[in-house]
């Protein structure tokens, strides 16, 4: 039996991603997510020495809604994950899946030369990476 060649993460990553400023309030960030049909946003770096941040719907549920906080009074930087693990576009899908499992994450920015190229999640790894056509 031969091993399957799963291909690179770039084959299945989502490229329509949005970056927001960390000082944006959560309510405004949610409006961006809703308008764009996204469940996550990247948080802009303050400078070239800063790291990427990311905020997910689950962060809002866990850190704002469950704590009965007003989303218009909470800044994205208060609830975001930072730094986030990143993956290269040429990383094999199987290794990305292993990385997610090992570190208990479900989303990661795809970064090359200090720039975000896209987002990869379990959803993309499974449904786009398997070539179900």
* Strand coverage percent: 15-25%
Distance between the termini: 23 Å
CATH topology: CBS-domain
Domains (count): 1
Helix proportion range: 25-40%
Could you give a quick summary of the protein structure above?
The protein is α+β, with helices and mostly antiparallel strands and 133 residues long. The chain has helices at 26-36, 57-65, 76-79, 93-103, 122-128; strands spanning 19-20, 40-43, 53-56, 107-112, 115-121.
What brief labels describe this structure?
two-stranded antiparallel ribbon, three-stranded mixed β-sheet, alpha+beta, 133 residues, 5 strands, CBS-domain
Structure description:
The chain has a 3-stranded mixed beta sheet. Helix content is 32%, strand content 17%. The chain has one domain (9-128): CBS-domain (Roll). Strand 1, helix 1 (26-36) and strand 2 (40-43) form a beta-alpha-beta unit. It has 133 residues and is of the alpha+beta class. The chain contains 5 helices and 5 strands. The model has no long low-confidence stretch (mean pLDDT 92).
Write the layout of secondary structure elements.
Layout: E1 19-20, H1 26-36, E2 40-43, E3 53-56, H2 57-65, H3 76-79, H4 93-103, E4 107-112, E5 115-121, H5 122-128
Parallel strand pairs: 1-2
Antiparallel strand pairs: 2-3, 4-5
């Amino acid at each position: 039996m031969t091993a399957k060649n799963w291909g690179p993460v770039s084959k299945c990553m989502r490229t329509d991603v949005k970056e927001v400023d960390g000082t944006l309030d959560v309510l405004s960030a949610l409006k961006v997510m809703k308008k764009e049909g996204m469940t996550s946003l990247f948080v802009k770096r303050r400078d070239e020495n800063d790291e990427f941040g990311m905020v997910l719907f689950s962060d809002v549920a866990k850190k704002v809604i469950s704590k009965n906080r007003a989303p218009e009074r909470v800044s994205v930087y208060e609830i975001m994950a930072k730094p986030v693990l990143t993956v290269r576009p040429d990383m094999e899908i199987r290794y990305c899946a292993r990385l997610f499992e090992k570190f208990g994450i479900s989303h990661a920015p795809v970064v090359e030369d200090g720039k975000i190229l896209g987002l990869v999640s379990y959803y993309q790894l499974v449904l786009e990476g398997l070539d179900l056509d």
